[in-house]
Amino acid sequence: MRWTRRQFASLIALPLARLRGQGISTRNVPPSPRGKPSGLPFAAQFTDVGKAAGLRAPVIYGETGRKTYILETVGCGAAFLDYDNDGWLDILILSGTRLNGAPEATNCLYKNNRDGTFVDVTEKAGLHRTGWASAVAVGDYNNDGLDDLFITYWGQNVLYRNNGDGTFTDVTKAAGLLHEKTRWGSGCTFIDYDRNGLLDLFVGNYLEFDPKTVPAPGGDSYCNWKGIPVHCGPRGLPPGTPSLYRNNGDGTFTDVSIPSGVAKAKGSYMMTAVAADFDNDGWPDIYVACDSTPSFLFRNNRNGTFTEAGLISGVALNEDGNPQAGMGLAVGDYNLDGNLDIFKTHFSDDTSILYRNDGKGFFDDVTSLSGIGVETRFAGWGTGMVDLDNDGQPDLFLVTGNVFPEVAEQLPRYPMSTPRVIFRNLGGGRFEELIEPAGPGIRETHCSRGCAFGDFDNDGDMDILAINLNEPPSLLRNDLSGGGHWLKVKLIGVKSNRSAIGARVTARYGGRIQAQEVLSQSSFYSVNDFRLHFGLGSAVAADLDIRWPNGNREALAKVAADQLVVVREGAGIVRSEKFGK
Question: Is the Cβ–Cβ distance between 277 and 340 less than 8 Å?
C-alpha cells in the first residue's frame, strides 16, 4: 500500500474537514498566474441553437429571486440517448418545480427529427411527471435492446421501462425500488458490479431535507456565505447514505446496501456518481463527488462487496487536505496513458480539481501543474472530458452558475449567470482556458447545472446540451472547421449487459493511446452519448482494444477514421456508417 505525504496530511485533516466553515465549502484561493496564451487557433465554435431546434420549455427550478431552501438551488441533469434506436440522439431534460407549485413543470423528452430539430413527445412517451427531479441514469436493465431510465427525485425515485413503441412504463413498484420515507435522491448509475451481465443500480442520497425543520436563511451559523444570510446547507443538515440494488434478472432488484458495504460510507453530501474501473483490475468501481465533504471512492472487491477508499486513493480531498464542494465529474484519459483520470467541479473562490491516475488506482492532484488553477471565479457544475476539436487530445468543458441571488445583489463579482468554460488540451499535461475564442455559445451567460455531450446532428463532432435554471436549455452546436479525423464506437453486449456499460475501448492512433469507458452517468447528474467518440488528429485509422464488462477482450486493427462502427460482442464490427457535414 502506497502512502504519500499528501495522504498522511489528508488523514490528519479528515476529522476537521467536516467541521469547518459556512454552508458551502470554499477555500478563498487566488487563481494561479496565467501563462502566455498559446496563440493556437481553436477549430471548434459553439452556437446555441436550442430554441431554433425546438427546445423551448423552460427548466423550472425554484424561485427566480431569493431562495428559501437549498432544494431550490441544486438543479438537475439531462441526457443524450437514442430511445427509439434510429441512430439519432434524442434528448431528455429533467425539471423541478416551485414551492408554491406554479408554474407546473415536467421532464421533457424530445425526439430527434434528423434535420436539426426536435419534437416534444413527453406526453406520448408517458414521461409527464412533476416534482423535484435530480439525476438520470440510462441503461438497458432488462437486456431487451432498449435503453431504460432511472430518475432520482426529492421524494420518490422512478424506474421507467422502455416499451419499444415510443412509450415508457413506470415500473418502480414492481421492480422493488419504492422506499418508505422521503429521500433526496442524487447521483445514480447503472453498474454491473458483479459482472453477471445484468445491470445493477447505485443511488446516492444528498441529504435529509424537511422544509418544516430547516432554519430560515441566516438562522444558523451554516446559513451564510461571505457573511450574507442565505439558505441553509448542505453543512448543518444531516447527510444521506448511499444505496446499492442488485438486479435479480426477473425485472426486480434487491437492496444490498448493507451486505455490499456501501452503506458504511457516511457523513458526506453525495452528488454525481460515476461507475468506472479506476484501478485497472477489470471490475467497475464507483466514484461519488461530495459537496463540502470528502468524496467517496468505492473500490470493487470482486466478491460482491466494496471498500470505501477515497482517502487512501487520493481523491477524497484536495492536495491541501481540504474537502471541496464537489458537484460535477468528468472521467477520461486526458494525458493519453491508458488510465482513467478524474476532473471534478467545485464552487466559487475555489478551483476545479484534476486527479491524474497512476494506473493502479492512486491519484495525484495536478490542478496547478496542468494550468486549470487559473479559474476560481465561477461555480462549476456539469462537465466533460471530451475532444471538442478532434485533435486527438481530450479537452475539458464545464458549465457554471451561482446559487445565491442575495450574494449576487450585494457582491456583483458573484453573478448568478456566468459563461461556460473550455480548457483546451495543449498536450504534455497542460491546458489553457478558452471562453471568448470558442464562439457565442460559450461566451453567453446562464445559470446552468447539468450538461451532456453527444453528436446530435451526426456530423462527426461533439455537441453540448446544457440545463439552464428557469429558462430553456441550451443546445450548443459544434461548428467544427478544419478539425482532425475522428472515430465513433457503438458497443452492443451479448454475454455482457446489452448497453455495454462498463466496457472499455482503448484506441491507438498516430503514436497515441487513449482509453474511454461506456458510462451510465457523469457530468452533473447527466448522461452522454453511449457512442464513444475519439478525435484522431491527423491519424486516418486506429487500432481498438475492447474489454467487455465481463472481462472478455476483442481487438480490431486499422479501423478507418471518420465513421461510426457498431461492434457486437464476439462478432466484431457488424455495421459502419459514414457521417456527412
Answer: yes
Q: What is the rounded distance in angstroms from the CA atom of residue 565 to the CA atom of residue 546?
A: 13
Q: What mean pLDDT value characterizes the chain?
A: 94
pTM for the model:
0.96
Q: Say if residue 103 is preceded by a cis peptide, omega within 30 of 0.
A: yes
Residue among 545, 5, 515, 524 at smallest CA distance from 278: 515
Encode pLDDT of 474-490 as tens digits.
Answer: 999 999 998 899 999 99
Find the radius of gyration of the CA atoms of the chain.
Answer: 22
Q: Give the model confidence (pLDDT) of 55-79 as tens digits.
A: 999 999 999 888 999 999 999 999 9
Chain Cα centroid distance, residue 231: 25
- CA distance linking residue 148 with residue 490, whole number of Å: 17
Strands of the 329-332 sheet, one edge to the other: 329-332, 341-344, 353-357, 363-365
Handedness of CA 8, 11, 12, 14 (dihedral sign): positive
Q: Phi/psi at 406 (nearest 5 deg)? A: -65, -40
The contacts of residue 298 (CB under 8 Å, 6+ apart) are 261, 262, 265, 285, 286, 287, 288, 306, 307, 308, 309
Instruction: Name the one residue in this structure whose C-alpha cell is 452492443.
Output: 492
The full DSSP string for 409-465 is HH-TTS-S-B--EEEEEEETTEEEEESGGG-HHHHS-B-EEEEEEE-TT-SSS-EEE
Cα–Cα distance measured from residue 48 to residue 137, given in angstroms and rounded to the nearest whole number: 25
Q: How far apart are the C-alpha atoms of 261 and 30, rounded to whole Å? A: 39
Domains and CATH numbers, the chain: 5-577 (2.130.10.10)
| Residue 578: CA count within 13 A, CB half-sphere | 3
